[in-house]
Amino acid sequence: MKNWESVVGSEPHSVAEGISARGELSSRKWSLSVVMNKFCGMEVAETAENAVVNRHLLATGFNRLERFLKNRSDLSGSLDELAGLGGKSTRSSAIRLKRKVEEFEPSVTFIGQVKAGKTTLVNAMVGRPGLLPADVNPWTSVVTSLHLDPHPPKQVNTAVFRFFEEDEWSRLLAMGGRLGELASRAGAQEEMEKVRQQVEAMREKSRVRLGRRFELLLGQEHEYGSFDEQLIERYVCLGDDFGEDDGTMAQGRFADITKSADLYMHRPEIPLKLCLRDTPGVNDTFMMREQITIGAIRESRICVVVLSAHQALSTVDMALVRLISNIQSREVIIFINRIDELPDPARQIPEIREAVHETLRKHDGPADAQIIFGSAYWATHALTDTLHTLSSDSAESLIKLAESELEAGADAESSLDLVWRLSGVPALYEALSERISEGAGREVVEGAARQASNLAKALQARSVSSFLAQSGKPKLRMDEAAIRTELRRIEAGGLRELEEEFSAAIEAYHLRLERCHRNFLDRAALSLISHLEENGDQAIWSYEPDGLRLLLRSAYQVFGARVQSLSRQVFESTAAEIGGLYRRAFDIERDFDIDPPQTPRVPPPVVIGQTIALDIKGNWWRNWWRRRRGYHTYTAEFSEMIRQETDPIIQDLKATLSSSVRLEAAATLREFIAEQRAVLLSVTSAGATATPGSEDWLARRRSTQVRLQAIEGAMASMTRDAA
Length: 723
Ligand SMILES: Nc1nc2c(ncn2[C@@H]2O[C@H](COP(=O)(O)OP(=O)(O)OP(=O)(O)O)[C@@H](O)[C@H]2O)c(=O)[nH]1
Ligand SMILES: [Mg+2]
Prior knowledge:
alpha/beta, 2 domains, 9-stranded mixed sheet, 9 strands, binds guanosine-5'-triphosphate
């Protein structure tokens, strides 16, 4: 009883034939229910690794990576060739570059509603149903990164668990998370008390569980050479769900204090390294995890938002919408899971799609984000070849969806492939492939191609140098000391310019942020006063903070565009100066350009989406309101509360983001110069192997030049291709 045919009935023909034969449909459905009744109540599939019999399914959805993979392998080939053509320094540069490109690991963060099925989906995507525990106690705050590698990973440690630092941990507990901070600021005693009790209970539990080791463990890491479900459970599942101490206490249960887990897996079906990050759901009442989610989003370029089909984006998910609304639509993919729970998915999917788009539009979210529908549940059953154990409702939905697909003219495919496709996993992998090849993957290839092209140019400069032609010896017109001095001058000039330009940009940006902030506070206070004048203090007033977000976002965008353009200018002028140095050092007459390095990426300002007091329209606000007396107290206290609430966002926008871009730009410039220095100075050490002027020597020189030009051409087309 393995394949689809056996699920829908025992007729020998394929699903495609069967389903398109409308006449047979009712009898097939009848036979389905017979089959289902027979299997209902059966144990759900065993989900250990060895139960995954259809792992080949994981290889679908990567077509869009082809160009990236081809470019990358051409690039590797060219780098090998360059390593052979140049001296020691060129070789080590080429090897380093090749390693960097090969080690490229794009990452994807999965965020979403609590219980939407993020963990189940990630488990299915890595071909290990049951690996990460699904259905975990809501206090979990662990971000788990699964590192997939088509080659067996070289790491000695295939699992690394990190614990909270002491200060992070005490802050988390002392303040009771964001809502705790907020409640205490607003003087909402009731809420505060609730949070405090929960936190106290949690602290007590950890202390009992971990005893004296507790303090010692904070800030530490635990590493393992292998992992299995039990080990992961000890680090990422809280004890409550597992009953009383079952004897494993001796080994410890660390979940309370685990901050992150990294697991390295060999996955030959997937054509590149890939990191999938599973995070805890965000619509929990206490928002302990919002900061964790913000951190996890920052670590990946692509964000997959997992929603549940039967409640895809309602008002309780506004926190989620806010978090993604500061990321470009192209880098957000919405996966609507659990379509197996829809009675009629074919009819409901378009409705849900429309509703989600509408909500995103209305709330200023990434309205153009791609939406994919699927079911981690179907995916798991397809992988483990246990379609016959699908619950009857789920099988019924699957059949209905399959029928409508086939009626719409879908290709005939095997029943297993069809179910896999309907699970949405291949479509999700395809969307990820597309984003990787046009985004981070393109940048990596382009950056390395520029560097490879510079190596090829440097070697050509050496071979066209008039000194080489005359004497057969690689020699420079300038001596080593002069080259070093000149490079130091160029570097200092470039860094100074970056520093000055950045300072000016940052200053303007800070002023603008402060102005936005002040204006917002003033406007809110004015609105409050006029409300009080018109309605008195019995009618409750509220104020939307979205205006502030809009202003902050546009200030950030202006800043981002400015620093990118100033970095580009500085990089270009530095590259031009180095080109001039080559011309002088090698005595080259023709134009000689060096490619400037890539401009730094400006990360999305996710923090703007952080929940602030005004977003929460619960009891606390009513209580706060009722406790105030007199207009004056309202306004002063309100302004102070909102200022304290929004200050951390402004601080983060000021400090973290601008300084990270600035540091990156300076580091890129330094690295660029260091590489040029190594290449330039290595030229004199690379000796000619044949007698200068001999035929052999000339022929070899010509062929080297031809090859270098070919490499340079290939690199240039790759950069153009990428652009
Ligand atoms: N019917 C159905 N159930 C699913 C599906 N995906 C997950 N589930 C179930 O939903 C429950 C929650 O799944 P998880 O994967 O833990 O959800 P999560 O989003 O990781 O939850 P949190 O981490 O707590 O936010 C589990 O009992 C899963 O078996 C699905 O596609 N269909
Ligand atoms: Mg989960």
